[in-house]
Amino acid sequence: MSTVGGRIREIREARGMTQDQLATRSGISKGFLSEVENDRRNLSSKILLKLAIELGAAVDYLLTGTSAKTEPVTSIEIPVELSRVAEELHLTHSETMAILEAYSSVVARRNPQGARRYTEGDWRQLHKALEPFLQKR
Asked: What is the mean pLDDT of the chain?
């Protein structure tokens, strides 16, 4: 494919995603995505980045078609409660991921039957406990 829109369509279809799915996950309308894929609309860098993340694609590949097509896809689900706390506390992505990693490595493994779902208060407490370590990162 020789255009940004064409490369987006190519990867979306290869991933078995519909326009509805990609648009919803990226926070844009299906109509806008369709216009992008058909080269009738340009993208902002913010939307391009959102699409690249959802597609597991390299931004430079989407822009130029000359680098590696996709990056390794690793699906990480950030619980909505942690997401809210991260936004409230203005945590960076790496700080949020460090908290989630600590939770997954320690807290969730202590209960072999599965950990209970953390509340926003639980995430705040875990952040407070980890804060000295997060500042060293």
From this structure: 83
The superfamily in CATH containing domain 4-64 is lambda repressor-like DNA-binding domains (1.10.260.40)
Q: What is the pTM of this model?
A: 0.52
C-alpha 99/C-alpha 58 separation (Å) is: 26
One-letter amino acid of 52: A
Q: Is the pLDDT at 75 greater than 80, yes or no?
A: no
User: 3-state DSSP helix/strand/coil percent for the chain, to nearest 5?
Assistant: 65, 0, 35
Q: Which of 127, 114, 133, 45 is nearest to 84 (CA)?
A: 127
Burial grade of 85 (CB within 10 A; 0-12, 13-18, 19 or more): buried
Q: What are the CA-CA distances from residue 19 to residues 54, 58, 69 (Å)?
A: 12, 19, 19
Domain ranges of the chain: 4-64, 80-134
What CA–CA distances, in Å, run from 102 to 77, 97, 127? Answer: 14, 8, 10
- Give yes or no for residue 97 having a pLDDT over 90: no
**Short-list 120, 50, 127, CA closest to 96:** 127
